[in-house]
Amino acid sequence: MNTRPFLRAFVSPAALCALAFMAALAAVMQYSLRAYVPGSLEPGGFTLANFTALLKPLYAWVFLDTVWICFLTAFVTLIVGYPLAYALVRTSNVALKSAILVITVTPLFLGEVVRTYSWIVVLGNNGFLNAMLLKFGLIGEPMQFMFTRFGVVTALVHVTLPVMVIMLAAALSHIDRDYDWAAASLGAGPIRAFLTVTLPLSTPGIIAGVTTAFAWTFSAFATPQLIGGGRVNMIANLVYQLGFASFNFPFAASLSVAALVLALALLALMRMAARPFESLGPH
Amino acid sequence: MPNLLSHSSSHQLLRLLGGAIVIAILGFLVLPAFVVTLAAFNGKAILSFPPESWSWRWFVKAIAYPDFQLGFRNGLIVTAWASSIALIAGAAFALALERYEFAFKHVLEAVLLAPLVVPHFTVGLGFLILAAQIGVARGYAVIVACHVVLVLPFVMRSVYVSLRNLDPRLELAAASLGAPPHRVLLTVTLPLLAPGLVGGWLFAAILSFNEFTASLFVTSQRTQTLPVALYNYVREYADPSMAAISVIYIMVTAALLIFANSFLGLAKVLNVEHSR
């Protein structure tokens, strides 16, 4: 008797998807090694020129800026997301739990464009925030939030917060409350019990949340494009600009390949740095 | 165990502080939705807070805008195909992953989960170049393929979690009573997996409908999905039509989620709550 019924049927559709994905990545890699022929969509012969061009300071700065914005966003999202995830898991009030859940998850389903637009309305020069600050006499003239790194990171935190909260809450909900009570019965105050018991036990969620927030921010396009307005550029914006404004697809491809390698390397580094803490998590 | 967690005044203070922080964070999350709603009912084309006059006209204008209508229709077509294909491929693979050992199992799993960390612009550019190389026009097929790859990890995860919680003895019982494998699959396994399947499909559909960055690369003027149409609008115009669309979006999503929460138990679907 066949002990693995339907194995082929179960695996083939997914294998086809994997094949399509690999083919797409291979296409980018192949293009990244081709010469750009100005005025033509067809690439030229094989060359390494695209990658040597990446070493120009202009591009190096965009790479550095992107990594910095990603780290900043992931860190702020963690700090803001943790209390919310904690409240979501630990509250015994059903109405509050549902409210937190719906309010947290709704933005996840609005998409990057709608959320970015909403932030333009909040942060713009005649937007909500400036109108309120002016009205209460806190400032004399509108402050510049748009086209700043502050504006971009604020909107990006809003974009990554839901997924961070979900991942932290998943980890927190797996922690046995008995550990808390044991710590309390041994005389630890709530802050100490949190710092020495709950926080270390939630490490897997923190790692998952931070790496996901990092990866999402890395591929964000609409937010830096619309709120950064060309003054805060991330790799995604450069790739799009090179592809659709200059039609230099080979160079756009080489930027994508470099971005992919950089993202994977940084994520692997983050996982490695987190490994000593991971053994603290629940098994 | 209330006697252990004594309610001294410092605990009360901590609780109060925690409550204030949570409310502030919820405020941060809700702020853009609140502000965009105010803007959508603004009578004038230029933003002002609070609005000087109120009007429905931006809703009328937004709904009548041909690009939004086309984007909505394209989005539904792409979403229906992509989420359904991803559901079938992802659920079947999750079953194989949980049940069987086979060659290249972990390689295949890693490749299929990779889109979670590969930047979407790389995936979009890849499918764009691939389509050009194999001579396929930028039609729905390319967009659907791209979306399937991007949402597949979410379906896999959702179904996989349900599978882990499924009691294998139920299937063994059916098999021992003489049910052939396909019958066990159709009458025992799949019905028991229903919440995971519905959750995964819903998640895939919502993500596909809202996917923007990769879609920007693989869609054309004719096949643009709603987020791409919205993006093009925001770049060109500043009137509150976009705010009106945003309000509709927020309302529909919140209604769907409140519905999902009361009927499916959102906390369970998202794996943030565990019944003991």
Element layout with pairings:
The complex is a heterodimer of chains A (283) and B (276).
Chain A (H helix, E strand, L loop, with lengths): L6 H26 L16 H5 L3 H34 L3 H12 L5 H13 L4 H8 L13 H25 L3 H9 L4 H12 L1 H16 L3 H5 L8 H10 L4 H30 L5
Helix pairs in contact in A: 1-13, 3-4, 3-7, 3-10, 5-7, 7-10, 8-9, 10-13, 12-13
Chain B lengths: L8 H32 L16 H8 L1 H34 L5 H9 L6 H14 L6 H25 L3 H9 L4 H30 L2 H6 L7 H11 L4 H23 L2 H4 L7
Helix pairs in contact in B: 1-11, 2-11, 3-6, 3-8, 3-10, 5-6, 6-8, 7-8
Give an overview of the whole structure.
- The complex is a heterodimer of chains A (283) and B (276).
- Chain A is mostly helical and 283 residues long.
- Chain A has one domain: MetI-like (MetI-like fold).
- Helix content of chain A is 72%, strand content 0%.
- Chain A contains 13 helices and no strands.
- In chain A, helix 3 (57-90) crosses helix 10 and helix 10 (203-218) runs antiparallel to helix 13.
- Chain B is mostly helical.
- Chain B has a single domain, classed as MetI-like (MetI-like fold).
- Chain B has helices spanning 9-40, 57-64, 66-99, 105-113, 120-133, 140-164, 168-176, 181-210, 213-218, 226-236, 241-263, 266-269.
- In chain B, helix 3 (66-99) crosses helix 6 and helix 5 (120-133) crosses helix 6.
- Chain B starts with 8 loop residues before the first helix and ends in a 7-residue tail after the last helix.
- Mean pLDDT of chain B is 85; it is low at 1-5.
- At the A-B interface, helix 1, helix 3, helix 4, helix 5 and helix 6 of A face helix 1, helix 3, helix 4, helix 5 and helix 6 of B.
